[in-house]
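Priority: medium. Attachment 1 of 2:
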């Protein structure tokens, strides 16, 4: 751990400092304040050190270990497609543009998912079945060089 504190890698330095401070008997909250990080991070490093030893100094993958499909059946995917091909106003929403969050909310209200999810599972589901989500634009443009003048004059 002493060698880790002298490392060139900031990740290794921080984790070594956490383990050494814990060894000195400091509390997680005090270590976090001293190092300027979250106390939950300190607890996770200490727990990782207790489980795997020096391996805690190596950065692992930041990807989730498991992913769970919110829309598990083909029928729910087909229903999601049907919903997205309609206006959100048909579902009592005050906008005419779909967002991922709004699609997740309407999916929950229509029983496609068991619990309210964020927009990310909607995007991931669409991607999994070869569809790409693009955010709607809230503005209109034109290649006409006089478009701005015409738009503001009301003579378009």
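Attachment 2 of 2:
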């Amino acid at each position: 751990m002493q060698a880790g504190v002298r490392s060139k890698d900031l990740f290794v330095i921080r984790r070594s400092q956490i383990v050494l401070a814990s060894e000195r008997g400091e509390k997680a909250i005090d270590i976090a304040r001293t190092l300027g990080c979250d106390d939950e991070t300190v607890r996770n490093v200490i727990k990782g050190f207790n489980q795997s030893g020096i391996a805690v100094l190596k950065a692992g993958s930041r990807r989730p270990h498991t992913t769970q499909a919110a829309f598990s059946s083909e029928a729910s995917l087909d229903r999601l497609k049907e919903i997205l091909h309609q206006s959100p106003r048909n579902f009592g929403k005050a906008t005419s543009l779909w967002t991922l969050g709004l699609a997740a909310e309407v999916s929950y209200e229509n029983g496609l998912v068991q619990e309210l999810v964020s927009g990310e599972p909607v995007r991931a589901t669409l991607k999994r079945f070869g569809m790409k989500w693009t955010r709607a634009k809230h503005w209109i443009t034109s290649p006409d060089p006089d478009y701005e003048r015409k738009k503001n004059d009301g003579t378009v």
